[in-house]
Amino acid sequence: MSIRLAIIGAGIMGSDHARIFSGDLPGASVQVVCDASGERARAVAEACGAADVSTDPLETIARGDVDAVLVASPDETHAPLSLAAIRAGKPVLCEKPLSQSGRECLDVIEAEVARGRQFVQLGFMRRFDPSYTEMKAALSDGTLGRAIMMHNFHRNVEAPANFTGQMAITNSAPHEFDVARFVLGADYTAISVFQPGAVDGAQTGAPVFMVLETDRGQLVNIEINNNAAYGYDVRGELIGEKGSVFLNAPIHLRYNIALTAAERYAPDWRPRFAEAYRLQNRAFLHFVRTGSFPAIAAHAWDGYCAARVAEAGVEALATGARVDIAVAERPALYQRS
Ligand code: ISE
Question: Which residues line ligand 1 (CB under 6 A)?
Answer without folding.
Answer: 156, 171-172, 175, 226, 269
